[in-house]
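Q: How would the structure tokens look for this protein?
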Amino acid sequence: MRKHLKRVTWGILSAFLILAVTGCGVRSKAGITGMKAADGGPVRVVATSPAVVDIMARLDMDLVGVPTSTLSVIPARYEDAVRVGTAMGPDMEIIKTLNPDYVIGPASLQTDMEPKLEAAGLSGIFLNLESVEGLYKSVEQLGELFGKQKEADALTDEFAAFYYEYSKGTEDREGPTVLVLMGLPGSYVVATGQSYVGSLVRLAGGVNVYEDEEKDFITANTEDMQDRDPDIILRAAHALPEDVVSMFREEFETNDIWKHFRAVENERVYDLPYDQFGMSARFNFPSALDTLQPMLYGEDEE
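A: Here is the predicted structure in token form.
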């Protein structure tokens, strides 16, 4: 059974992990096996986003620094870890005082973070958390890097077993076409198949009308969106979810073009809960898929 699950797992994990390291470069795996740093003590790691913290907790890794967050709960085991600022704006001065061996963050913020880490002389690892597949590939790679293969294998086996059963419920369904909008107060972009929300739509059997774009988020005019004629419109929030819901409501009520979308005419427009549909892949994705099911296939389907 385990060999079967491993085959299923690696078949699913087609996305690759972005494991980019700045500063001094990647230390050899032998140098950190057993969580040992260059000086022989425990490896010192800072996680800059709640999604990364969640991964490290499940790999049973200690952290010396964690992000400040009002929207995500940091596991109790990191109660004494130093708060290093938000995921969008970690404080490099605080991080530097912690003398970390590695600073780990999402690849979506690499462009902004990497120069700052280099300037501070710090080594950074950036994870592809823009899909569920990327999440579990990250787990595998970090497990190998930090000598946590047992914990990583347990997580990926769990995912393989879940997805094997879950896919049975969607394989015979015709997936609806979906337009996904990601909002900030006052503006919004289109979430493509390269985004986390896009990957959830794909796992649930939906067809993103912007599936094949190269970037995770793009700007598109409403005329092009209408031409793609989505069955369903999903609206997610990048931040400040209550403000974004209000913004979308006003946009759809006051911009006349939305009234001509078939999804709007059929009342198939849904606001996605922020705690399940954020910017980075999280281990609560099964609940997100459960939320998507009635939106994609109707309230009467299971």
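The chain has two domains: 2-165, 170-297.

The CA atoms of residues 61 and 148 lie 8 Å apart.

Upvote if useful.
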